[in-house]
Structure formats: structure tokens, C-alpha cells
Amino acid sequence: NDQFMIISQISKILVLCWKENTKNLTDEDFKHEALKFIDIVKKRETKKILVDMREFNFKLNNELIQWRNNNVIRVYNELGVEKFAFLSNNYNFNPFNKNFSLISKN
């Protein structure tokens, strides 16, 4: 675990909890953290992922959203991840919206 995320496993579900410190992320930090999580998914061979967004305070720009789709979501699909869920305080939270920004509103 590091300054931006905590990784744990509950039963067969891999859990990523973003920390409040994500307000200090840069685009490169986000990419690094996302790729690090992919490595963990690969090592644990998990098919179920829960991402806790309640403390996530970083806004992804359109370029970073495209990068995420090409370099993260695609890999989850290739790895055969079957279930992927988000936990958020934001009632407007929609990770499938093309304008999805991954920002928590507390």
C-alpha cells in the first residue's frame, strides 16, 4: 500500500480504496498507480474488483480517460475480470458516462 491507495482482499474480491491524498495526484501519478493495480490484479488472478471512490479527489481530463480506457479497462477485459464495482458518495456517479471524471463529492 502506498500514499494514494490501499489494496486488500475480501473473500475473492480485490478491493482498491483510493485515499484522500489523491488530491495531490498528477496525471503521471495516476497512470503509475493504475498500472501498479493492474500488476496486482494479474498476480492475484482475481475476477472480481471493488473500487472505493469515496476519498478519490482527482479529476481525469479527456486524454487521461482515453488512456485509462486503452491501458486499464482493456487489460481488465483481457484478464477476464467478470465483476467490477464502484463505491462512491457521489449520487451522479456514472463510470460509463464518457464525461466520467472519477471525482468524489463529499
Q: How does this model look, in words?
A:
The chain has 106 residues and is an alpha/beta fold. Helices cover 34% and strands 21% of the residues. It is built from two helices and four strands, in the order ββαβαβ. It has a four-stranded mixed sheet with strand order 1-2-3-4, with helices on one face. Helix 1 (27-44) packs parallel to helix 2. The radius of gyration is 13 Å and the shape is globular. The relative contact order is 0.19. Mean pLDDT is 85; it is low at 98-106.
Features:
4-stranded mixed sheet; alpha/beta; disordered C terminus; 2 helices; 106 residues
**Total DSSP helices:** 2
Give the structural class. Answer: alpha/beta
| Span between termini | 23 Å
Report the principal-axis shape.
globular
Biggest sheet layout: 4 strands, mixed
Low-confidence stretches: 98-106
Q: How much helix is in the residues? A: 25-40%
Name the helix and strand elements from N-terminus to C-terminus, one letter apiece. Answer: EEHEHE
Name the beta content range: 15-25%
User: Roughly how many Å is the radius of gyration?
Assistant: 13 Å
User: Numbering strands along the chain, what is their spatial order in the largest sheet?
Assistant: 1-2-3-4
Overall number of strands: 4
Mean pLDDT: 85
Describe the SSE topology:
Elements lengths: L4 E6 L2 E6 L8 H18 L3 E5 L9 H18 L3 E5 L19
Helix pairs in contact: 1-2
